[in-house]
Structures are given as structure tokens and as C-alpha cells.
Amino acid sequence: xxxxxxxxxxxxxxxxxxxxxxxxxxxxxxxxxxxxxxxxxxxxxxxxxxxxxxxxxxxxxxxxxxxxxxxxxxxxxxxxxxxxxxxxxxxxxxxxxxxxxxxxxxxxxxxxxxxxxxx
Length: 119
Description:
The chain is 28% helix and 33% strand. With 119 residues, the chain is of the alpha+beta class. The strands form two sheets. Strands 2-5-1-6 form a four-stranded antiparallel sheet. A hairpin with a 2-residue loop joins strand 3 and strand 4 (66-71).
């Protein structure tokens, strides 16, 4: 079964936030990069795209046949999606185990695991 792993960065330090990233030691920074690299090289993983910061989003809705746009994300910034990947796994437990290896999951963010509908 294929699963989408939706990465919610939350308060996890990233290179995009130089202040928070700078609070990590050089060894911690290298470990984060190594962990992401290991996850994306796992057999069955198809890396997705890294998304720009939530502040760059435009949210689109259609009401009464009119297209409405709002600057910024629909959800609170701390909960916004920052990237994704797919994982061809034997079962949900395998997908959860891989999601737990993603640094965001242990550094103040979360990883949502969701089955992909195959048509």
C-alpha cells in the first residue's frame, strides 16, 4: 500500500529559520541532514517536494461561483505543511516507523501518515 507522509515542521529548527537552526550544534545539524537523507533513500520512498514557507501561500475558495483568495495558509502557521513524500510499504506499521525517523517528528513538528487512494 502507498502512504503519503505529510511533514508538518511545527517548531522544529530548520535552515530556513537561521536563529533556531543556529541554536543546534554543528553535530545536531549534520544529524538532521543525515536523517532526512537516510529517509529519502529508504527503498519504497519517493521524495516529494519541499514547500516554501506558509507565509507565501495563497488559499483559494469558491463561494457563490466567485473565486476568493486569501494571502497565507488556511491553517495556523505552526501547523502548516512543509513537505511530503510517498512510501510504498507493506502496512501502516512500516509507514509509522519510517515517519518516526523524520526529524520534524521529534523536533517539535509532526508527520501525518495517510493512505493514498489508488484508482
